[in-house]
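Re: your question from the hallway

Yes, I did run it. Sequences:
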Amino acid sequence: MASTGIRDRVAIVGMGCTAFGEHWDKGVSDLLIESSTAAMTSAGVTREDIDAYWLGTMGSGTSGLTLSRALRLDNKPVTRLENFCATGSEALRNACYAVASGAYDMAMAIGVEKLKDSGFSGLVPTPVPGDGTGSDLTAPAAFSLLAPAYARRYGVDDAELKDVLARIASKNHHNGARNPRAQFRKEVSRETVCAAPLVAGALGVFDCSGVSDGSAAAIVVRAEDAHRYTDKPIYVKGLSFVAGPATGTSDPAYDYTTFPEVVASARDAYRQAGVTDPRRELALAEVHDCFTPTELVLMEDLGFADRGFGWKEVLAGTYELGGDLPVNPDGGLKAFGHPIGASGLRMMFECWLQLRHEAPPERRIASVDAGRTLALTHNLGGRPGECVSFVSVVGSEPSA
Amino acid sequence: MASSVGITGYGAYVPYWRLTRAAVAAALGTGGGKGTRAVASYDEDTTTLGVEAARVALRGRADEPGTLYFSTTDPAYADKSNATVVHAALRLGRDVLAVDFGGAVRSGIGALLAAAGAAAGGAAGLVVLADTRTGLPGGQDETAGGDAASALLLGRDTPGAPVLAELLAQASATAEFLDRWRVPGASASRVWEERFGEQAYLPLAHEAFAAALKDADLTPDQLDRVIVAGTHARAVRAFAARCGARRDALAPDLTDALGNPGTAQAGLLLADALDRAEPGQTIALVVLADGATATVWRATDALPAGRPAVGVADQVAAGNDTLPYASFLTWKGFLDREPPRRPDPAAPAAPPSLRSAAWKFGFVASKCTACGDVQLPPGRVCKKCAAVDEATPVALADTPAKIATFTVDRLAYTPSPPLVGVVVDFDGGGRTDCELTDSAGDVAIGQRVEMTFRRVVTAGNGIHNYFWKARPVRFTKER
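Structure:
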């Protein structure tokens, strides 16, 4: 038994992504119509061409009717799914597998979330009837546990770590300022990041991703059909998703400096894609920077830095727009915003633009121009110790 | 009347927080006074106070009471029993009768005598007395009241559970008159003019006291310790002065430091007296509450070895008097503060709460018989070796732990922000994350903590969510 993957068997031939932000004037249907229309236009297809849909949303709708009603689809299969913050990526993974199986010729993966309609600060958990003994910690508090754990394990002092985290926030805001679709489009200095009011632990407001509304969509076909729709398809090289055993919060051996789920899913995705040295093979990575220490730990879990050296790479500028391996060139969750169901597909949208040389000049990355053709997207859902993780590798060239 | 029953175990619980009475005057320009009063934290109520007192009394004991009587004037629930919550938190057997006494301060001594009566018949009983007392801001009851709990085990003298203080005699006098009263649901009590109450109480107290002493074949001056309890401070003082006891026999009433914890006071002061008494000494307890009841006790040779690990004086000394008056008012429900922009906390649902009662109320985890791994919450599949249904229950409520890591959550919903979340490792294995309570703000990795039963929150539908939190270890003395 093995996770063999579907390397180069399907390709993305069209994508759409709304601006992320506070869309007081748009409902869930509006966002779905906007991103799906953009994706169809991009691929030059109409909804009659699409055989099946996978809709990812955590809490902005239930059942496939959320999409079929919005688009007035004519009795097409629509699967609504949810998998925490990997929801959008899960829509893509399932659509890809459906096409690869031969069951459908063309599928759409679409994600949407309207977080701002709740009126609350931060993310709001979906209430499931329970015994009331679960953790009351909010997401920033749970992820804030990473920072002191990392600092202790690798001998980084608190002030230095704060600077490292501020650089991550500042980098992503720098990138977001160059992205017209991003929720936050102003550069933010390290000083501003450090001076922000505290939310949890050492994390301030600028260490947290944006709460926003948005939608993104992708159209997937078999690789051999891809050139019917575009000259520059993006081939799916590997798709990995894992749900961890959720034992970290009750395991004294877990030290909050890694996400074993991410390590496992990255290993699986790299094997499917034939990637052996991600740091040098990838042109860019879109990772789940829900909070700044998450991005730091991910650099090591995804193999972009040796254990204990991620913070030095951050300080060296490795992951900046002009760096060796640009991470979150579109601004990431931090600056682009994080409408849960849409985020995974939003990440893929940046890969789509960058690998096709369609990113605007102000955030073009040198690695693509230098000939790298692979990109990675990553989502993490849950919290340290109990989470799900998704990793994809896509590329602009089919394997030789 | 010589009795073969008595106290076989006891304990008291004084919450960590104190309000300085001067803080009231500083804020309102009125009220106040000297000293401090004990304050139940925002996550405590009479049920949780009672659980903590009973845990002190039961700690390290192998025997189990046959009955549990829980008494308070400030019950967390009406219609629904609170004694069953205490019963569940103490992990008592299903065949243990757990019932509520309540309403009036007088019900406390009533519960004690009922348990003594049952004990004489052979049924060992646990009496848990708990109260949270306050009054309108600036008023006498606000500063004179206190929050605390006490627990007494009554039983026959047996080798496994020897009597620590034998009940020599008891007598009561009952009369109907208006001293203090409160309509159910009202936030404060009302009292009649105090000189009237003094006149009503004194003859009743003398009557009960004389009858009990006669039964015990003692004279007032022979008593080694005399405790006078009651919420009518003037009558209590007057009776203590005129009862005939030696001056040096009068027990301190702890009101300067703690205030008067109503229903719990009699048990609290008796526990304090037992903490200090020597074998053979006699103790009279006179309770003035809508009548008077006098009981006479004699400490036995078993007392020194049967004392709880944590005494009343230890807890009086360990209080933290930095509580701001605004926090006190908020916790007592007199200051309606702006909530965080977060959803109201969800109520625990009844069926899952029943299914996981051992965990939720008793903090019972699981231990894998195949590999020994301890798992919190308990699970049917071992997280380490994946054995299915090979786990045995393991009670961790009394197991100390150490903080592995922590964070301060300024976004979470809590009546007392910010919430401090800790990850704790239990001695002997097992980890969980939970809330840290009763912290003086000095949380640190490696800090020793112990578990405490708390009311996490009350949901909009009135359901109290009880569960366990960690608190810093403040008493290291072992029994």
